[in-house]
Amino acid sequence: QVQLVESGGGLVQPGGSLRLSCAASGIIFKIYTMGWYRQAPGKERELVAVISSGGSTNYVDSVKGRFTISRDNVKNTVYLQTNSLTPEDTADYYCNAHWGIANYWGQGTQVTVSS
């Protein structure tokens, strides 16, 4: 069974940081494009960051310079380092794995940025 399990979310003050993790199982992790999406209340789910099987990365403009996506193909884990967090970053963050016609989602982890 395919599983993507996110962790690392929580409550953080503005300007703080969180390191989100997504542990994958049931897939050949190395060949998958991995991404982090987020969905805030009342908003559409948006792509935050993506990393290809070759390590190329892309980010939504609003997080460029603040967030970093990385992957560990030995641990089958993708990370999202989030720095300089603002209340606008508050959302449920979801891990995604994509390869060809395969597309999988994690259950999400909540990030709340508030003082």
Topology of this protein?
Layout: E1 3-7, E2 10-12, E3 18-25, E4 33-39, E5 46-51, E6 57-59, E7 67-72, E8 77-82, E9 91-99, E10 102-105, E11 109-113
Parallel strand pairs: 2-11
Antiparallel strand pairs: 1-3, 3-8, 4-5, 4-9, 5-6, 7-8, 9-10, 9-11
Can you describe this structure in just a few lines?
With 115 residues, the protein is mostly beta strands. 0% of the residues lie in helices and 54% in strands. It has strands at residues 3-7, 10-12, 18-25, 33-39, 46-51, 57-59, 67-72, 77-82, 91-99, 102-105, 109-113.
Strand residue percentage: over 45%
* Form type: globular
Uncertain segments of ≥5 residues (pLDDT<50)?
none
Quote the distance from N terminus to C terminus.
39 Å
Number of strands: 11
Helix content: under 10%
- Rounded to the nearest angstrom, the radius of gyration is 13 Å
Characterization of this structure:
The chain is an all-beta fold and 115 residues long. 0% of the residues lie in helices and 54% in strands. The protein contains no helices and eleven strands. The strands form two sheets. Strands 2, 4, 5, 6, 9, 10 and 11 form a seven-stranded mixed β-sheet that branches. The protein has a four-stranded antiparallel β-sheet with strand order 1-3-8-7, with no helix packed on it. It is globular, with a radius of gyration of 13 Å. The model has no long low-confidence stretch (mean pLDDT 98).
Features:
11 strands; mainly beta; seven-stranded mixed beta sheet; about 120 residues
